[in-house]
Amino acid sequence: NRMAERAGDVIKTLMKLGTMATITQSIDADTAELVASEFGHRIKRVTEADVEQVLVDQGDTDAAQLPRPPVVTVMGHVDHGKTSLLDALRKTDVAAGEAGGITQHIGAYQVILPHAVHGFDRVTFIDTPGHAAFTEMRARGAHVTDVVVLVVAADDGIMPQTIEAIRHAKAAQAPMIVAINKCDLPGANPARVRQDLLQHDVQVEEMGGDVLSVEISAKTRMGLDKLLDAILLQAEILELKSNPNRAAVGVVIEAKLEKGRGSVATVLVQKGTLKVGDIFVAGSEWGRVRALVDDRGRTVTAATPAQPVEVIGLTAAPQAGDDFTVVETEAKAREVSEFRQRKRRQQQVAASGRGSLEQMLANIKSGQAKELAVLIKGDVHGSVEAIKGALEKIIDAENEVRVRVLDAAVGAITESDVTLANASKAIIIGFNVRANPQARDMARRDGVDIRYYAIIYNVIDDIKLALSGMLAPTLREKFPGNAQILQVFNITKVGKVAGCKVVEGVVKRGAKVRLLRDNVVIHEGSLKTLKRMKDEVKEVSQGYECGMAFENYDNIEANDVIECFEMEEIARAI
Ligand code: GDP
User: Fold this and answer.
1) Which among 73, 77, 79, 151 is the best mutation to test ligand 1's pocket, defined by most ligand atoms within 8 Å of the CB?
2) Residue 155 alpha carbon to ligand 1 centre in Å
């Protein structure tokens, strides 16, 4: 129709190209291009995704950019005082305690300072419970936080979630300020906190590094001014700027369905000014701003950069971390929202393998990615460090692609590792350790690639080959199944025999086996016997009980897991 050609002529041309097609048949884009140019038309390729073009940021001139307040997230171990600190900081607000103070719980709020510090008169705090929320937001591509405040209790020191918070902050590449809390307590030892942070690659100023640390007490309010000063100093260094005079762009911090108000989303405006009446797209939903409510519960008519507001007027609730963009017309908003909903459904159908090594390499090849992110978990510190060191040294001369080690730690692979890997599109390397069942399910669901190794050389080799784009056929381990030891029997002349139950797949007599305790490999070898009742058998499948004993090894305990593995040669291709 658009070429104003007769169908018969088009079919004839197609035949000349060797394609037999009928008038109602779809043809691929390459063929269509050939046909169109055969008729002397100039073609321009568009994709369905072009509807999202309206959301592409045109950028702002430097002159239009004005300073904006910083956005801060507080993280740390449970009970170290995150909530107390946020409450204490809230009380520094000019209107605190009076009518008009921060009242609403909308997932983020702005503290207005009594006087300007380093040129800022306000700070925005994001109050999302737990680190998972932070990472999930990042997983959706939202860069919300300018500065992370790490709260560490001076009487308790570095704890598991402190380490997790450090990892998340590093992965997000957000500058960190350490708030050493509870310094009012007699057992407080801030010097030890600073010292111990070194072990996690955080060098505070007192230790010769450049991370600011402040001793505070959320309870007595000691050091809060200093903390605010440090936050704002860091903000000043970052030269945070944004153009307030344009259509608004932001991020959804929280969204929910409320009785009487419909779908309500807390949005942090990042650029421009959001006004009542604006038409917008939020993730795969759209709407028109019917009302804006600020963190003090007041109805406002507009919100500026770094200001969180509740937006009323959505067709449905978006997800935390979704982008929020004001568009010109309702038609465009609908179009984008429909496209995204379609795309989301397609993605759900084809559980995408975006975390798979192959997918990542494809991205690197097409120039979409410049680094291969990995997360290393291992059984001992020495091997983890060795792998980390070796991988970081690999630089592919041609493509300038390198390995970025997000984290390297000792221990089993947990859900938090999978979340982190998913957010950073990383693969996970398990060196003599395994994923726990929850992490395994999650990895399967999110398409995160977990690779298990037992030889350091193999890890390095695999990644090297991968980076140079030469994926030769390699040996890769396959896991037919595993069994859990229920009870250990001591049998004269035979030694220790494990009474097991096969929990996954099948265990086979010929296969090699490993003994895992708490998801860490402690022995590798082969089976002496595999018995079902009294008989020696070839294999036992899931759900059945069996007796097993190792060749030349008997340090086995109840609850250990015996994992069967085979080497399989697979041809890899990108
Ligand atoms: P969160 O789990 O990190 O949010 O920690 P909370 O803010 O709930 O605090 C945990 C406990 O530590 C509460 O009982 C607080 O009263 C107490 N706490 C918090 N900050 C301080 C402090 O600076 N000094 C003392 N002594 N106790 C504190």
Assistant:
1) 79
2) 11
Residue 544 burial (CB count, 10 A): 15
Q: In 28-52, which positions are buried (b, 16+ CB within 10 angstroms) versus exposed (e)?
A: eeebeebbbeeeeeeeeeeeeeebb
Mean pLDDT score across all residues of the chain? 84
Six token digits for residue 490: 């001591």
Cβ of 555: how many Cβ atoms within 10 Å?
A: 11
Only one residue has tokens 């490993």, namely: 514
SS3 222: coil
- The residue among 529, 524, 523 whose CA lies nearest residue 493 is 529
Return the exposure string of 227-238: e unless at least 16 CB atoms fall within 10 Å of the residue's CB, then b: bbebbbebbeee
For helices 130-139 and 415-423, angle between their N-to-C axes, nearest 10 degrees: 30
**Of 399, 411, 406, 456, whose CA–CA distance to 426 is shortest?**
406
- pLDDT tens for 104-153 read 677 888 999 988 888 899 999 987 666 666 777 776 666 888 999 999 99
Assign 3-state DSSP to the chain and report helix, strand, coil percentages, each to 5.
30, 35, 35
Distance separating alpha carbons of residues 478 and 514, to the nearest angstrom: 13
Atom of ligand 1 nearest to the CA of 185: 26
Q: Which residue has the tokens 């890890």?
A: 459
Tell how far the Cα of 4 is from the centroid of ligand 1, in angstroms. 74
400-419 pLDDT, tens per residue? 667 888 888 888 898 888 88
Q: Which of 248, 220, 69, 83 is nearest to 147 (CA)?
A: 69
Distance between Cα 55 and ligand 1 center (Å): 43
What is the whole-number distance in angstroms between the Cα of residue 80 and the centre of ligand 1?
Answer: 6
The residues lining ligand 1, judged by C-beta closer than 6 Å to any ligand atom, are: 76, 78-84, 181-182, 184-185, 217-219
Looking up tokens 């097991």, which residue turns up? Answer: 500
CB 473 within 8 A of CB 569: yes
Question: Average pLDDT, stretch 294-320?
Answer: 90
Q: Which of 74, 77, 82, 84 to mutate to test the pocket of ligand 1 (most atoms within 8 A of CB)?
A: 84
What pTM was computed for the model?
Answer: 0.60
Distance, CA 143 to ligand 1 centroid (Å)?
28
Q: What is the whole-number distance in angstroms between the Cα of residue 81 and the centre of ligand 1? A: 4
Point out which residues pair with 487 in neighbouring strands. Answer: 499
